[in-house]
Amino acid sequence: MGWLSFGQKITLGFAVVVVLGLAVGGLSVYALRSVVAEKDLILAVYAQNLIVAEKLRTAVQERTSDNRGYLLTRDDRFLQNLRESREESARLVDELRKRTTTTEEAKALGKIEQASAAQMAVADRVMEARKKDPTAEAVAKQFQDEVVPRNLDLEKAIDEFAQIEEQRLDGARQQSTASANLAGSMVVGIAVVGAIAAAVLAYGLSRLLNRQIGTAVQHIQSSSTELQSAANQQTTSTKEQVASMNEIATTIKELVVTARQIANSAQRVAGIAEETAASARKGEQTIQKSQDAAGLIRRQVDQIVAHMLDLGKKSQQIGGILDIINELSEQTNILAINATIEAAGAGDAGKRFGVVADEIRKLADRVGGSTKEIKGLIEEIRSAVHTTVMATETGSKAVDAGTRQFDEVTGQLTQIVRLVETTREAAREIELSTKQQTTAVEQVNLAIANVSQASKESEASSAQTLQTVSELAQLSRNLVRLIRPRAAS
Q1: Burial of 357 by CB count in 10 Å (0-12 exposed, 13-18 middle, 19+ buried)?
Q2: What value does the CA radius of gyration of the chain take, rounded to a whole number of Å?
Q3: pTM summary value
Q4: What span, in angstroms and rounded, lies between the C-alpha atoms of 317 and 313?
Q5: Is the per-residue pLDDT at 42 higher than 50?
Q6: 3-class SS at 402?
Q7: Integer CA distances (angstroms), 150 to 109, 114, 116, 129, 370, in order
Q8: Which of 107, 177, 304, 413 could hold 284 in an S-S bridge, CB 3.0 to 4.6 Å?
Q9: Contact at 8 Å (CB) between 64 and 151?
């Protein structure tokens, strides 16, 4: 480094420190962008696939509910709802097919389609049988034996697909964490290396400059006696000193410009960090909205369960009323039989009364039969209510699982926001430090200007410098070699 000037050595050391700082900042921005990109992949692909799979599960449960409703009531409104549920299921399967990227996902989706087709075929066959007006017990048994197993197969296929997506989501989350840890380690490593390099460079420059300046000081001390007796020789050396001060002032100005450029760069880094933090906060708000939607679904599910339980209670009340009616019909039947016996004992006078009693007995028998059929329907309603409550509880558990996953994603986004805020604060501190350095360099420049002015005044007052001109010239050449060795040679 002997061929460099004094100002160039200072500039070189400052430039090395700035380059290391910019390297750490660039690596930090790259790490943040990588983490944000992996987060976007998790939200846009894997989490969305899980959401679509849960919607498909809900649509399948609605199909089952519509099938059961039509079998119980033969109401055409359930057929319309069934068509809409099937169309929704087909649309969701098509959406999953478009989002499928691996062979494992494609196989799981194929199982879902096969199970769905089998379930719809069996359900259509049972509903066609119901249109021929068989007994409710036969239809219920056929639904339980044929449709329910197909529903279980379909839900199992959907569970397999959701499990695949959850595994991919966990893998992506682990990879994102590993990338963030690696980037953090790299930033710390470069920062440590930069600090060590800056310390070594500062130590080397300090020793080199101290050695060169010490040699010059020795020459000045050896010539101080001659300078005291030959003050008239200061004119020439003062002129050279003024020129040197001008060069130093020019170098300081260049340092000021460089420091301002560094401050502007730090300000731009802080702006980029601010934009990144804003994007992360928007992502956090989106997750919060999804959590609110999941909570609304949970409350609706709880309302459905409450309505189903209320329906079960009312069906029990109807059963109690039917027991009373059945008991009245049995007592009426007994009274009719007694009346018939009394009419037979009365002879011809009781024949008409016997006919009326016989009709009353028949009516009581029909009422008893009707109450038995109504009891059977009530039992079917109770079974349907229980099945609906169980299915709703399953959906509620799925909503809780989705809510927990949203909480995990929200926590990760919050951590990203904190890291971005830390980077932004570091950039602002760099900007403030650079501005302070710029102010200090400007003060040095002002001091050098004052020294230059004093040198000019000394030049005007040093008229007797003729006796020691050769020694002062040699000393001036040595000083020039320290500041500009190439120019001196």
Answers
A1: buried
A2: 47
A3: 0.36
A4: 6
A5: yes
A6: helix
A7: 16, 10, 8, 18, 34
A8: 413
A9: yes
